[in-house]
Write a structure and sequence with these properties.
408 residues, Growth Hormone, Chain: A, 2 domains, single chain
C-alpha cells in the first residue's frame, strides 16, 4: 500500500513503531490528567491539587540534567522502556488505591514523584533516540509525525478521560493510562537499533561539566533556549492563568475558553501536517518567526477581542508553534553530535520547565498590582521584543538547515 508522500518516512519500521508508542502513551496521559485532577478534588481542594502536580514537576526540574547524562552514557532505548514501566507502575498503583477507596492525597503525591522522575529521564533520551531512528534528511518529518501523534491524542484523550470519569470513576481512566505506558514500553522494546560507539564515560559531574561546555560553546543553542525559557516564564502562565479569568469576566465563561483551546488543539494538528511538507534554509530564523505570533493572543485577550477572533488567531499561532517545534528538534538533532545530544537536550528541556512554575507563581500577584490587561500586554510585548533580540544574534541568522560537515 502506497502512503501519502508526507508519510513515506513511516516505511521505516522503527520510526513507525515509535510514533505508535508515542500516540498510545499520549492518549493515556490526556485521559489521566483530567482523571487525576478530579480524583484529587474528591479528596481535597485546589491546594491539594496544586501540591500533587507540584510533586510531579519538581523531580523533572531536579533530575533532568542527570537524565541527559545517562542518556548519553547508556542505551536510550533501555531508558525509555524503563521510564515507561515506572510510569505504568505508578499509575497502576494510583488506580488501585482509587478503585479500592483507600487513596489519600499523600499517596498520590508520592506516586507522582516517581512519575515525574521517570519523565526527567525519558525526555532527553527521546530527543537522542529520534536522532538514531531517522536519517538527517527526514528528521523534520520524523519530529512532525511524533508531534502530530501527540497533538491528535491531545484532543481525544481529555474527552475520553472525562467520559470515563463521568460514567465510571477517575481510577478507571488512570488504569487505562497505566496500560498505555505498558504498551508503549513493549513497542519501544521491539525497536531494532544499531550499536552506537561512545567514548568512555567519566564521572557524572565530569559528564555534566562536558555537557555544559557543549551547550555554552554553541551560541545559537543557548540563545534559543534562553528565548524559550522566557517564553515559558511569561507567555504560557499569562495565557493559561489570565486567559480563563478574562473568559469568565468578559467573554461568556468556561464555554468560550474551552472553544478557544479546542480550536488551538486543531491548529496544532494542522501544524503537524504542514511540518511534514515545509523546509527552511535558515531554520532558526523560521523557528523564531513561527513562535513570536503566539504573543498576539495575549494582546487580543487584553482588549478583549471577540471569541471568534481570538480562536482564529489561536488556530494560526498553534499551527505555527507546532511547525516551529519540529524545525527546532530536527535542527538540534542534525547539528549536535550523537555523544552530546541528550545532555544538550536536557539543558533545553530544563530551560523550558524550570521557569514555568515561577511564571505561574508571579502572574497572579502581578496582575493584581498592575491589572490583568496590563499584564497581558506586558507579557505579549516582552515576547515580541525578545524575538527581535534573538534575530539579531549572528549565529541564529546564519545557521543552515544542515551542517557543512559531520557534527563533532
Amino acid at each position: 500500500m502506497r502512503l501519502p508522500a508526507s508519510f513515506e518516512t513511516l516505511r521505516e519500521r522503527n520510526l513507525a513503531r515509535y510514533v505508535v508508542a508515542t500516540a498510545v502513551s499520549s492518549l493515556g496521559s490526556g485521559m489521566a490528567d483530567i482523571a487525576l485532577a478530579f480524583a484529587i478534588l474528591d479528596l481535597g481542594g485546589p491546594t491539594e491539587l496544586g501540591l500533587v502536580f507540584l510533586a510531579r514537576e519538581l523531580p523533572l526540574v531536579v533530575l533532568l540534567l542527570l537524565g541527559g547524562v545517562w542518556a548519553d552514557r547508556i542505551s536510550r532505548k533501555a531508558i525509555l522502556v524503563g521510564s515507561d514501566l515506572v510510569r505504568s507502575s505508578s499509575q497502576a498503583a494510583a488506580a488501585l488505591l482509587l478503585l479500592t477507596g483507600s487513596a489519600e492525597v499523600w499517596h498520590l503525591a508520592l506516586l507522582q514523584i516517581a512519575f515525574g522522575g521517570a519523565n526527567a529521564f525519558s525526555r532527553p533520551a527521546y530527543t537522542g533516540l529520534v536522532q538514531q531512528l531517522a536519517p538527517a534528511e527526514t528528521l523534520q518529518q520524523a519530529n512532525a509525525l511524533l508531534g502530530l501523534a501527540r497533538s491528535t491524542t491531545r484532543i481525544a484523550g481529555p474527552a475520553i478521560g472525562a467520559t470515563l470519569v463521568a460514567l465510571a470513576s477517575p481510577g478507571w481512566a488512570i488504569a487505562v493510562d497505566a496500560t498505555t505506558f505498558a504498551v508503549s514500553a513493549a513497542l519501544v522494546l521491539s525497536l531494532r537499533l544499531g550499536s552506537v560507539v561512545r567514548t568512555a564515560a567519566g564521572s557524572v559531574l565530569g559528564d555534566l561539566r562536558d555537557g555544559w561546555k557543549e551547550f555554552t560553546s554553541r551560541t545559537w543553542v543557548w540563545t534559543i533556549v534562553a528565548y524559550f525559557g522566557l517564553y515559558q516564564l511569561t507567555l504560557f502562565p499569562a495565557l493559561l492563568v489570565l486567559g480563563p479569568f478574562v473568559a469568565k469576566e468578559e467573554l461568556g465563561g468556561a464555554g468560550a475558553w474551552g472553544a478557544i483551546l479546542a480550536v488551538q488543539a486543531v491548529g496544532s494538528v494542522v501544524g503537524g501536517l504542514i511540518a511534514l511538507r515545509v523546509s527552511f534554509r535558515r531554520p532558526l530564523v523560521a523557528d523564531t518567526l513561527l513562535a513570536a505570533p503566539m504573543a498576539a493572543i495575549l494582546l487580543l485577550l487584553a482588549i478583549p477581542a471577540p471569541v471568534v477572533l481570538i480562536a482564529a488567531v489561536g488556530f494560526v499561532t498553534a499551527a505555527c508553534l507546532t511547525v516551529g517545534d519540529a524545525v527546532w528538534f530536527s535542527t538540534l538533532q542534525r547539528h549536535i553530535p550523537e555523544h552530546a545530544i541528550s545532555r544538550i537536550s536536557s539543558f533545553d528541556w530544563l530551560g523550558s520547565v524550570a521557569l514555568n512554575p515561577i511564571g505561574y507563581v508571579l502572574v497572579g500577584p502581578l496582575s493584581s498590582q498592575i491589572g490583568v490587561s496590563t499584564t497581558l500586554v506586558l507579557a505579549g510585548l516582552l515576547n515580541l521584543a525578545s524575538a527581535a533580540v534573538l534575530l539579531a544574534v549572528p549565529s541564529v541568522r546564519a545557521l543552515g538547515a544542515y551542517p557543512e560537515s559531520k557534527p563533532t
